[in-house]
Write a structure and sequence with these properties.
It is a single chain. This protein is mainly β. It is built from 1 helix and 9 strands, in the order βββββββαββ. A 5-stranded antiparallel beta sheet has the order 2-1-3-9-7, covered by helices on one side. The model is unreliable at about 1-15 (pLDDT under 50).
Length: about 170
């Protein structure tokens, strides 16, 4: 009669699971970009976030122009992780050339990823020469795993307009 209108629950705090061990951890991957000194050497690393602009927004893209972004991926958590790294174009405006033809800048740009690049390139020609298989902006992806406390992975993203593109 005393249990009427009340709740009853039984909780346990132990689980027997043979030889398995359940351990809590955290999953945290960070991507940093290099800030360069005036001489082109690495000054510091800053974390990429949703507000980060990796490329010069005021760049004048013309044949031969190149930009390089140095990235560092690291496992900042306590668990191993599996990742897939890729690039995509978030937005792009149409442009018009001197002949009145509409085009997109991405149609003329090439890019490549140089893996394990821990130092800055001497100049843009060296960066372009280091790209083995240039491709369009949406053509790169890489999958891999990173163990907890693993060494960071470095890469250089090289985006350039080939000199063979006409000036129109």
């Amino acid at each position: 009669a005393m249990l009427i209108g009340s709740t009853f629950a039984w909780f346990t705090d132990s689980v027997t699971s043979g030889k398995n061990k359940i351990v809590a951890g955290n999953l945290d991957v960070e991507m940093d970009y290099a800030v360069l000194n005036e001489d082109g050497s690495f000054k510091e690393w800053k974390t990429v976030d949703s507000e980060t602009s990796l490329f010069d927004e005021n760049a004048l893209w013309e044949p031969g122009h190149a930009e390089v972004v140095y990235l560092r991926m690291r496992n900042a958590g306590t668990l191993a992780l599996k990742y897939k790294f890729g690039m995509n174009i978030v937005s792009e405006n149409d442009a018009t050339n001197v002949n009145g033809e509409t085009f997109k800048l991405s149609q003329y740009l090439q890019y490549g990823v140089v893996e394990d690049q821990k130092e800055a390139f001497a100049d843009r020609n060296a960066a372009i020469a280091a790209v083995e298989n240039p491709t369009s902006l949406a053509g790169y992806s890489k999958e891999g795993t990173m163990l907890a406390e693993a060494e960071p992975q470095y890469l250089a993203l090289v985006v350039y307009m080939p000199e063979t593109v006409g000036n129109e």
